Amino acid sequence: MPRAVVTHNVVKMHAQPNGESEQVSQTILGHTLLVSTPPAPDENWLKVQTDDNYSGWVHTKQIRLLGEDEQYPTPAHTHRVNALWAFVREKPDIHSAHLTIAPMGAWLEGQEWHGDWLHVRLPDGREGWVSVQDVTSQWVTVTRIGSLRVEGMVISRGESTERYVVPRAGWQNALVYTARRLLGVPYLWGGSSPFGLDCSGFVQLVYRMCGLVIPRDADLQAEFGRTIEVSPSDVQPGDLIFFAGGNDPHRRTVTHVGMIVDGEHFIHSSGGVGVNITPLDEPYYRSILWGVRRATDV
What we know:
The chain is mainly β. The chain folds into 3 domains: 3-65, Roll (SH3 type barrels); 75-165, Roll (SH3 type barrels), CATH 2.30.30.40; 171-295, Alpha-Beta Complex (endopeptidase fold (from Nostoc punctiforme)). The chain is built from 4 helices and 24 strands. The chain has helices at 171-181, 199-209, 218-222, 283-287, and strands at 3-6, 10-14, 23-28, 32-35, 45-49, 55-59, 63-65, 78-81, 85-89, 98-103, 107-114, 117-121, 127-131, 135-139, 151-156, 160-165, 192-193, 196-197, 227-230, 240-243, 256-262, 265-270, 274-279, 289-295. The strands form 6 sheets. Strands 13-12-11-8-14-15-16 form a 7-stranded antiparallel beta sheet, with no helix packed on it. The radius of gyration is 19 Å and the shape is globular. 37% of the residues are buried.
């Protein structure tokens, strides 16, 4: 399949090849897409597939087709945005104008360090600068669903580095820490970035940032083969908690998902509220509880 790279900070994925159709998900800056429909010069929309095997239609102005052997970012220069948002500036100066805002999870191609600033090349060819505190050097061997393993370097002021691998023992803490960083992000149907998140987009982003790509939708997450069922009385931080209720236009059984933060609370993105923490014994959610699942082999 032909491949493309996302050139805008957040790109809507639509159910149909027009901007008025439902937003089913989003993809973000620097991510590689598989192109499902043959590109044509006179077409404004392409059907694409993301690394979580999710399909949708994107506008051609927001992506760039890659050459047969081309990669973005190149493996030796791969950096991931770990801040909620990273301003890519014209110059290595906090007062410089910014070219774009790269959201959490975006991939950037780093060129070289100058003090506390990383010189980057954006997917559209423009060059800019990001602050050291916003990015981590990464390399990823497999980028399809269920297989992402993030390794990289923790960078201190762009000078000293140390090897970093997400430790299994600390994985649950990393999930909770990452989830809490997103508190207050508004709810957005189909949202997959810190600019707006739906329930499944929220837990997917949290898991992705901690090293595991899980499916996009709540019902697919509930069926994910790399999870096991656990009793609601035996929950642990990082477990996914699922609910069946509400009016889902797609008539799916599982309609909502959150993540356990401790034995008494879960965190989720809910309509009208956004990312928030809710007691497990809240009557409404207790009445529609579907089950709890835990990721394995992490």
